[in-house]
């Protein structure tokens, strides 16, 4: 699945890892199993009560079925863009522009599930996701949302050592005032913030580094932190 980059109001560029189709289908199946389990327990309880058939009984069944009807909407609102299935697979609904989805966004994508998933058995959603390039089904396109993966990708960038070219020229010698512990914390917070799209954290981290090192720069926060990490590794590897 493709990744995409967004530019926030704070001029922070953030790369989003779009959740792949197989992970989304797996999350859907997990949620479906939870719903089936709920129905099994519900039917078992109602049978155990041995209530006679009546209009009142069907009304009770209708009321007890509401959690299933509103399942994805309720959980995405209460769990900040996740259902239990999405939580298990570490994926989340987010806005394309990097902001947190509103209730209206969740409501709109839930309403269009009728077309995306229910009426066509998910074929329309699958086709739209594959063609769109940003992991969006029709409901996401209408709501301005997508689903990203929050799984951490382990690479050399997740360690203290940064991959820098042999002819690298450092920009900020002031980074030597930082310690190994400082730079490791910076890398971890920076990587997590980029992965989750938390541009406010990136801006705060940028301001904190400037406060500690007294560096003067006009670079965007994400560019500045990248250079700080590389500069630190350059000086400490000499």
| Structural class assignment | mainly alpha
How many distinct folded domains? 2
Radius of gyration, CA atoms, in whole angstroms:
24 Å
Output the number of helix runs. Answer: 12
Mean pLDDT: 84
The helix-strand sequence is: EEHHHHHEHHHHEHHH
Count the strands?
4
Distance between the amino and carboxyl termini: 39 Å
Percentage of residues assigned to helices: 55-70%
The outline comes out as: elongated
Strand content: 5-15%
Q: Strands of the largest sheet, in order across it?
A: 1-2
pLDDT < 50 stretches: 7-12, 154-158
- Main beta sheet strand tally, sense and closure: 2 strands, antiparallel
Give a brief description.
This protein has helices at residues 21-49, 55-64, 66-69, 71-78, 84-88, 103-111, 113-118, 123-132, 138-143, 180-196, 199-213, 221-236; strands at residues 3-7, 13-17, 91-95, 145-149.
Written overview of the protein:
The chain has 238 residues and is mostly helical. 57% of the residues lie in helices and 8% in strands. It has 2 domains: 3-149, no CATH class; 156-236, no CATH class. The strands form 2 sheets. A two-stranded antiparallel sheet has the order 1-2. The chain is elongated and about 80 Å long. The model is unreliable at 7-12 and 154-158 (pLDDT under 50).
Helix-strand layout with pairing:
Layout: E1 3-7, E2 13-17, H1 21-49, H2 55-64, H3 66-69, H4 71-78, H5 84-88, E3 91-95, H6 103-111, H7 113-118, H8 123-132, H9 138-143, E4 145-149, H10 180-196, H11 199-213, H12 221-236
Antiparallel strand pairs: 1-2, 3-4
Helix pairs in contact: 4-6, 10-11, 11-12
């Amino acid at each position: 699945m493709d990744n995409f980059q967004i530019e926030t109001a704070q001029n922070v560029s953030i790369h989003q890892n779009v959740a792949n189709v197989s992970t989304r289908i797996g999350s859907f199946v997990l949620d479906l199993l939870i719903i089936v389990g709920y129905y099994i327990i519900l039917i078992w309880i109602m049978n155990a009560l041995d209530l006679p058939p009546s209009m009142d009984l069907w009304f009770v069944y209708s009321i007890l079925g509401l959690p299933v009807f509103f399942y994805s909407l309720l959980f995405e609102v209460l769990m900040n863009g996740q259902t239990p299935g999405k939580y298990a697979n570490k994926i989340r609904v987010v806005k394309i522009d990097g902001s947190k989805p509103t209730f209206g966004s969740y409501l709109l994508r839930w309403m269009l599930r009728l077309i995306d998933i229910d009426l066509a058995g998910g074929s329309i959603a699958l086709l739209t996701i594959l063609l769109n390039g940003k992991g969006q089904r029709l409901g996401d396109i209408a709501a301005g949302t997508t689903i990203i993966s929050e799984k951490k990708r382990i690479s050399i960038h997740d360690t203290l050592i940064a991959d820098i070219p042999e002819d690298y020229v450092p920009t900020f010698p002031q980074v030597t005032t930082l310690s190994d512990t400082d730079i490791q914390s910076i890398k971890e917070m920076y990587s997590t913030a980029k992965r989750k799209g938390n541009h406010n954290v990136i801006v705060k981290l940028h301001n904190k580094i400037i406060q500690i090192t007294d560096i003067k720069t006009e670079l965007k926060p994400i560019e500045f932190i990248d250079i700080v990490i590389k500069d630190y590794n350059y000086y400490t590897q000499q």
